[in-house]
Fold this protein.
Amino acid sequence: MSRRALGLFALGLLITVFVAVVLSQFASSEPDGLEYVAEDQGFANTAEDHDLADAPLADYGENLESSGAISTGVAGFIGVIAALGVGFGLFWLIRAPNTDSPRRTS
Amino acid sequence: MHIPDGVIGPGVSAAAGVVAAGGFGVAVSRARRYLTDRLVPLAALVTAFVFAGQMINFPVLPGMSGHLIGGVLAAVLVGPWAGFLVIAIVLMIQAFLFADGGLTALGLNIVNMALIGGVVGYGVYRVVFRFAGSRPDRVALSAGIAAFVSVPLAGMGFVFEFALGGTAESLSIGAILAAMLGTHLLIGIGEGFITFFVVGAVMKARPDLVYGSPTFSGRRTEELMS
């Protein structure tokens, strides 16, 4: 990557981390559209507890938040790194040969 | 928008799992035709951004919130099939790391958000973009409009699955359809605005990397400007 491309990538990552770590503190805790409809229409009771409901990061750290060990912000940061890492891994593995892109500009 | 375990029966959930796995295979084989190594960092960044964006529930009605799906956002930026993979990765991380979205419902959620929200949403984008004159300065607006439409579409995916395999008895599918449509049209407004601003920002910074734009410098698997 060129220096400008690297800078833009860093800026994008910074914004992403800000959203996951800081903005997430202000997210609404009201049910989302599907949960709302499920309660409204009377099928919310068919939902089962998640198999991993006791996992440390379940519900974005809510399990451990009371013990002060982890917060939504930390969970968000871990999630961003995980998504970035898995994304990089998969897309790097399946990337197309560079020779296919004759109009390469960067 | 994430379906938990138990709401849709095992048969329909398994069928959706098969569709999702098939979609994943198609997505890998399509994406590897155009996703050159210079596009890899953007695709990874979009994956991280969609994860972060989905954490932000914004208020919609008293007692109800909504959050980004990111299907059209990802599809316009990195193409519909790499976009499918973006959303699928996010859903897997949410289900396995954060207990968000049931494990047996993973296929259902991939069908609704990655396949319908992303790949079908990209089809909507192409139609809107053509109507808008196929100009680079209309990419973000077209993406925003398609993103708005994609949310009720994904919601319809749930209603279809519920009609086929919902475990709750004696409920009115018509009432659920109306409720899902109404609420998700409202949530779609948020999806549209976020998509408009994010795609607009990337169009300003690197229009050559935006798959859905005529300024894209790589090769596409299908011809966009016809």
